[in-house]
Sigma-70 family RNA polymerase sigma factor
Amino acid sequence: MEITPEEISHQLEKAKKGKQSAFKFLLDYYWNEVYGFQLKRVRNEHEAEDITIETFAKAFDKIDSFDEKYTFSTWLVTISKNIQIDRTRKKNASIYSNTTDASNEHVQRIADHAPTPEDKLIREQNLAELLQYIKLLKPHYQEVINLRYFQEMSYNEISETLEEPLNNVKVRLLRARKLLAEIITQKD
């Protein structure tokens, strides 16, 4: 099914109202574009992934400021580019610090609602088989899945444990669930 500009506009409106399904749609639809852009720039999968996660966290925080005169993908790529430039400047200055303000936690939050289809898939799988699938994920995705579903931590607890901003944790967990669901679907 081809996604129309009207559908994207509709999803953006839903996201501005805090609908979790809209955030998931936008993440799924634009992930490859932003990740591919960063991979070409930084030539490092892990760093490109981190920047992409941070891009979506920042974009979802500031979704109300998005001006629909522009395309959403251009806005995301611009955010991504600015994050990458900031990181490069900080590396060059030999200062390593988190590029997301702690105050971002007080900005609009992504809702933590009822279980998604991915959540149901995760719970319904045989535990031993599920652990094998989880081991196929990259370590930082394994970690958030473990903290959320096996240690039953809240988003805030995971954020504190990983010493990462709350919205970065939410986006990483969303991405981890999507990747895990894809792995499970492919293997079945």
Q: What stands out?
A: The longest helix spans residues 20-42. The chain has nine helices and no strands. The chain has two domains: 5-92, 112-187.
